[in-house]
What does this fold into?
Amino acid sequence: MSRRTSRPRGSASAGAGTGRITPQSPCPCGLPATYGDCCGRLHAGTAAAPTCEALMRSRYSAFVVQDAAYLLRTWHPETRPPSVDFDPAMRWTGLDILETTEGTAFHTSGTVTFRAHYTDGGRPDALHEKSRFVRHEGAWVYATAVFVD
It folds into this structure.
């Protein structure tokens, strides 16, 4: 999720806000684990994403909990914006991983095609994107994206 401005075709803004997600909450990324055992560990810096899909899921969750620091930390320095804006009218409601290519411990790059569902002012919509990830200083980072729809 690459957006820099405050609209869906701008900054992929967050929805739930940090006050609503606790370590015991289901992880927003959609995997069957609690936030604390899943993406929360990555956000806290106690674990690193082992694959680009894991990084994609954790970045989606970072939009949900509005963790701008994590989003910026996991963005390639050559494409990283100076800040991330969150639109208070947006609520991220679900993530579908549609396809992954490469992006494992044995690769230096990979892609994740996904659909991120949201509501904007109560109206449902979705962001369909193919994101490219690369290794930078040993860690997976988000590099670029192409919008599919």
Summary: Residues 2-19 have pLDDT under 50 and may be disordered. Residues 23 and 129 are 28 Å apart (CA to CA). Helices lie at 39-44, 52-65, 68-73.
